[in-house]
Amino acid sequence: MTDTMKGTAIKGATRPSRDFGEGRVCSESGCDTRLSRYNKREYCYSHAPVKYPRVRGRILPEGT
Ligand SMILES: [Zn+2]
């Protein structure tokens, strides 16, 4: 049994680990994927506004 994931993974952090609320869900309407309380993002992985360089084909215009 390992308990290494119990909040001591942050190296060199001077602040106490702050959470962003518990039980938050994705901000995408209709998506209720739960977010980690330590995840500062507002969206789940599926809706996170990140670019996937491996995606080919259709290029969706940004800013629309
Ligand atoms: Zn989502």
Characteristics:
single chain, 64 residues, little secondary structure, binds zinc ion
What does this entry look like structurally?
With 64 residues, the chain is low in regular secondary structure. It has a domain at 19-50. It is 0% helix and 0% strand. The protein has no helix or strand. The mean pLDDT is 75. Zinc ion binds next to loops.
List the helices and strands and how they pair.
Blueprint: no helix or strand
Helical residue percent? under 10%
Name the bound molecules: zinc ion
* Structural class computed from helices and strand pairing: little secondary structure
The quaternary structure here is: single chain
Gyration radius over CA? 16 Å
Task: Give a short synopsis of this structure.
With 64 residues, this protein is low in regular secondary structure. It binds zinc ion.
